[in-house]
Amino acid sequence: MCILHPPFRLANANDASRLAALVNFAGDGLPLYLWQKRAKPGEDPWQIGRDRQAEKATDGTVVVMDDGDGAVASLTGYVIGAGPEPIDPGLSALLRPLLELENMALNSWYVNVLACYPARRGAGIGTGLLDIAEQLARAAGLGRMSVIVADDNTGARRLYERHGFKFAASAPCAKQDWDAATKEWQLMIRTLSPRGS
């Protein structure tokens, strides 16, 4: 982990509610759809999301931006290794293309979630979190970063393009009964220049 300076910090379990909302922003509603699918009768799908984010925060794998009023943006990511991950034959058609694209981004630091509350967008918070992601990638000895965006999320795609990410591959979005405008997922890769260049 890199050294974080305020207003950035590691998330903790108390951030779970905001993190669940941020993850859902980043996923254009897909996370809530998946939580609804997993919820038992009478179970709050948002609680599933909060529990999942509390667990991730406890692992020390989530960075948030907090300027004193709680987390307003978050970054979650991880290293994709040198070999492709096996994909469970029973995995839903909705999630399969996402894992197939991840398997095309070997030896990269994968930006799994980069999200900001809508009222705080456009203030450079995403840039600050991407700078932290780059530090994490370099600390892991990786020469590239990766992210998957929905084709209809032009704001996110423009942000990544401004930071050197380029289109690498796409896969169709098998929406099933998920109500979204997304037609395809797009893998974007950024090659990191050597330090000092």
Automatic annotation (TrEMBL):
Which keywords describe this protein according to UniProt?
Answer: Acyltransferase, Transferase
Pfam families recorded: Acetyltransf_1 (PF00583)
EC number from the UniProt entry: 2.3.1.-
Q: Does the keyword Cell membrane apply?
A: no
Task: Kindly list the GO molecular function terms attached to this UniProt entry.
Answer: acyltransferase activity, transferring groups other than amino-acyl groups
Please give the PROSITE patterns that the UniProt record associates with this protein. GNAT
Record's superkingdom? Bacteria
Looking up InterPro entries in the UniProt record yields: Acyl_CoA_acyltransferase, Bact_Acetyltransf, GNAT_dom
- Domain N-acetyltransferase per the UniProt entry, residue ranges: 6-193
User: Know the name of this protein?
Assistant: GNAT family N-acetyltransferase
Annotated organism of origin: Yoonia rhodophyticola
Taxonomy, top ranks, is: Bacteria, Pseudomonadati, Pseudomonadota, Alphaproteobacteria, Rhodobacterales
